[in-house]
């Protein structure tokens, strides 16, 4: 099975979509204001939320008065989004690498932690350029290389010398290296690329909840954990709980999370031809 199929199968599973929608927003919502400010969102802005999932960003953009479209490959996620975010009617099933929209349809494109799920992230950035009107802006977030909330399980796996076999895929932190996002924007024809770090914290109800987020509500990490023998998975769980004790806050857990926010602009005079 290839990486694109792994992603599609995971997110299309209503049980995975439901656990993600229930538990994951605490991990990903700290970037929403910076993303929306990054595209200069205002009332009426025609915004595309790429890989919108259950609509965490879509909802906030709608509340700010933007004309929002959410696109995601998973119909199960779109169903969650539709239920949670009343008022937004424009939910579209589609792949970021081949967006089902005409050239120049949007004034702004955002994607919150979408890039690391795409089998061809550069293609997705090129598609964002295509569907933006000249003068339009893009803002993307990816996990920062020291996002503990996301590093914890891979670090425990490594400490136990466990390396579950997964299909080849772009690295989870591939664009986190300084300058990588900026270069990717430039390669697609964008102007004024910039990067900055955004930090926050995730409040999680209990260590069990953290474990469930990933074992039942993620794609790549879930596949890796499910590929382990039961006793190995139990060792990982014990290791994760031990690490989480460092971050105990009351009865729950507070985890530091960081993201890289990349923004860029399609120049007011740019055309598709300029890129080729
Ligand atoms: C981690 S979730 C992020 C969701 C949302 N942006 C948020 O902030 O919660 C990743 C989402 O990307 C979607 N996805 C994965 N690969 C995709 C692709 N190639 N095209 C469109 N959506 C994709 C999944 O269905 C899933 O909803």
Q: What is the CATH fold-level name?
A: Rossmann fold
- Flag low-confidence runs: none
Structural class: alpha/beta
| Overall number of domains | 1
Overall 3D geometry? globular
Q: Report the bound ligands by name, code or SMILES.
A: S-adenosylmethionine
Summarize the helix and strand pattern as letters: HHHHEHEHEEHEHHEHHHEE
Number of helices: 12
Give the termini distance in whole angstroms: 33 Å
What do the pLDDT scores average to?
Answer: 94
CATH architecture: 3-Layer(aba) Sandwich
Largest sheet geometry = 8 strands, mixed
What would you report as the Rg, rounded to the nearest angstrom? 18 Å
Strand content: 15-25%
CATH class: Alpha Beta
Overview of the structural elements:
The protein is an alpha/beta fold and 276 residues long. It has a single domain (3-266), classed as Rossmann fold (3-Layer(aba) Sandwich), CATH 3.40.50.150. The protein has helices at residues 3-12, 14-23, 25-28, 32-38, 56-63, 75-84, 121-131, 148-159, 180-187, 207-217, 220-226, 230-244, and strands spanning 46-50, 67-72, 91-93, 106-112, 132-143, 191-204, 248-249, 252-265. Helix 2 packs across helix 6 and helix 8 (148-159) packs across helix 12 (230-244). The longest helix has 15 residues, at 230-244. The model has no long low-confidence stretch (mean pLDDT 94).
